[in-house]
Each structure stands twice: as C-alpha cells, then as structure tokens.
C-alpha cells in the first residue's frame, strides 16, 4: 500500500465521451487520448477506469485478450499524460444500469457472491486484469467493483441475497485475487451508502473499514440529504465529510486512509449554477478530515444526450461537457488543485466525538440512524452547524482512554445530548 501523500490526490472517474462505457465495443484510442488530455488539463493526477464485465469476460472461462490489451493501452495513454489509474473490475452497476455476464443470468442464474463457480471465475478475472497492469508504474491498483453491493439486497429488483458473513468472505477472496495479480498495489472495494445507512444490508461498515488497503466512500446527496436540508444546508455541504468521519469510527488502523472515491453535484438537487460552490464546499469540508487519501470526482465528462434512458441527473455530472469543454465545477476543481499544489495537508484533530451505537460493531443491525433523517445523522450535523467539527466514536470505545487519546478526542457526547 502506498504511503499517505503529503498532499491529497485529485482525480476523476473517467466517463468516455464517445459511447460512454460502451466505448469498449468500438475502442478508439485517439478519442481516449483526447479525453485524457482534457482531464489532465484540469491538473488532476489520476483516473478511475471501468471495464464492462460482460464484455471482458463473456464466458466464465473466456477473458478476452483484446479487451485486456485495450485496458492496458488506456493505462499507458494515461501515463503519458501524468495520470495514475485505478481499475474497477466487476461492472457490475453503473449509473442505474446493471452489467452482468450471461453466465450468471436467466437460464444460468447463479448467486454472484456465493456460487462457487461464479466466485472462481470472478477471482480469475480480477487476477488477470491486475496482472496485466502490475508492471505499469502508474497503476494504483484494483477496486473490486463499482457499488456491487447493490446486487445483494433491497431495493434491487432481483437481489442475490447473502449474509454479512458471506459478504465478508467474498470480499476477502476478491481482494486476495487482486493481490495475487499485482502484489503490493492499492487494492480496495467500494460500496454505495446502503452499507452505512441500511439496516440488515449484508455489506457492512466494518467490512468497508477493515478489508482492503483503504476505506472507500461514495457520497451522494440525492439520498435524502439535499431533499431534507437544501442545496446549501450544513448536512448537504458536509455529507462527504460526515461519511469520512463515520468510516473512521470503524478503523482498527488509526492511520488507515479514506478515499472519497465518488462525489458529484447532482441536478436538480444541486442546480447547475450552484455546482461550483457545492464542489468547493464539499472538498474543503472533506479535507478538514484526517487521513483522506484523495478526492475523485464523478465524473470526468457529461453523458451524451444521444444515449437514451439514463436518469436525468446522469447527463450533467461531468467536470467537462461531452464536447470536452470545462464546466464551472471543472473550473472549481482546477482552482482547488492549484491551491493544494504546495500546501501541507494536516487538518487539526477533531477533539469532540459523537458516540454511535449501531447494536453490534461487526453486523451493525441499527444503521438507519446514521442516514438522512436518522437521529445520529441529524445530531452530527447540528454539532457541525455549531462549529464543533465532530468526530465519530463507536459506543464500545466511549470510555476507552487509549483509543480516544490516539485519535485526539478529549470530549464525547451522545445524540440525545445534542441541543
């Protein structure tokens, strides 16, 4: 695992301008290079890349060599522009669309987390992608998949239900497969916020905070936060920071990095004319938290209007237009990158912590109190509105003087005590 950087990393989730992620069907390296030029022009230092799993592994025993070669070519083109690359393996789910190979569906319907043959095929796929990139200096590592936890529980229309023990075992095996392909790289997994906010969800905060090289946070304010608190509400502008502090409560390694791997300004909750302000406030508040590895904005380029059936907000999330023109949020990111270029990242300790009790550290059966409208969520943001800069501490550590001292915490409060 790479050492925590002196300054945070800034990047973008790469959404190709030609064909969106379907570009792998008609891979055009010149178009990719032009996209990467526009990303590098913002001063960013890395991208997150998304192979489509059914296109790369259309059969359980066929991982297409040409597709892997194209992925390596993309990584090499990024290196030429000074961009490091993280690769998400199991796609999985992207922007409301599911991408699962035929050998897991319909007549071959099998649980993607529990079926032995499917899991073995996933391991070989992740190992193959990691191994193909292992010798590239700009290859950061693998993310197991993009929010693949959404396949495991409600509200997915056809979930592959598993226990939290099965989820942990599956994650351990997937991370081990990435490590086997590219030893020593920055391998991790990433879930959407049901892992933090949904009771009984099989993917848990403890898994997110303890498996893999870093804890990934995906912060989206369309989850009820902006609807409840408005576009400039404290909870809206601090949602990413809140999730980072929530994640840190479960860490057993006090120096474990947190990667704000997805965050964006979704319209209409964040109107286009306010996207730059939201971007600036979100990043400033996130970097007021310790141990943040970096911020990776969703996304690099807008989705082309010629593509049908996306939720409306998905078309306008880019830092750049589909014609590669810089948008106000992109201009804000460029300013932030420049401001941080020679700036030391050393946020002050958060000396007051709000005590969180989810019922059990491992399974966390009572997580809804952490989500928008929940007692803990609302209390944390009331403290923030008072200028307190709260951390989060699990109830089991509330009276653990050694744990509190290691984190610089000198005072604690419970949600019921917050005015």
TrEMBL record:
This is Cellulase (Glycosyl hydrolase family 5). InterPro entries: GH (IPR017853). It comes from the Bacteria. It comes from Streptomyces indicus.
